[in-house]
Specification:
Elements lengths: L3 E5 L3 H13 L3 E5 L2 H11 L3 E5 L7 H9 L6 E5 L4 H10 L3 E4 L4 H15 L24
Parallel strand pairs: 1-2, 1-3, 3-4, 4-5
Helix pairs in contact: 2-3
């Protein structure tokens, strides 16, 4: 079974680059360029891992993480240019499983993806919680 990765980033160049990079390592890749689209795709496509940008205009990474946790246990790996321990702690407390600072080497990114899949067993289970509506949850902006 291939590891299915959903990349959520508002920068089209980043999602295209991640798509190419991850496919060369044998991953199945789905991309979304808005938080809302990413949330919908988690429910529809049931990826094994979500790679999530933190700073996006429609919904930021905190909002997306919180919305995903309301209906899914899918592992979330944050990729962000922000390198602030307080921000890292905040997003991990919101429900993300791991955090990497951009730019990150492809070998480190792939190693973290493989580690998160091993640790969570996300290839072996369905990641959606029962009786939930992902779009019904509060997704107010995270206070800065």
């Amino acid at each position: 079974m291939h590891t299915k990765i959903l990349v959520i980033d508002d920068d089209l160049a980043i999602t295209e680059l991640m798509n190419l990079l991850l496919k060369t390592h044998g991953f199945e890749v789905i991309t979304a360029n808005t938080g809302a689209e990413g949330i919908r795709l988690v429910e529809e496509k049931r990826p094994n891992v979500v790679l999530l940008d933190l700073m996006m205009p429609d919904m930021d990474g905190w909002q997306v993480s919180k919305a995903l946790r309301a209906f899914s246990n899918v592992p979330i790996l944050i990729l962000s240019a922000i390198n602030d321990p307080g921000i890292v702690a905040s997003v991990l407390d919101t429900g993300a499983d791991d955090f990497l600072v951009k730019p990150v080497s492809s070998s480190v990114l792939v190693a973290h993806i493989r580690k998160i899949v091993r640790q969570t067993g996300s290839l072996d289970k369905v990641n959606l919680k029962k009786n939930s509506n992902p779009m019904a949850h509060n997704t107010q902006p995270h206070p800065s």
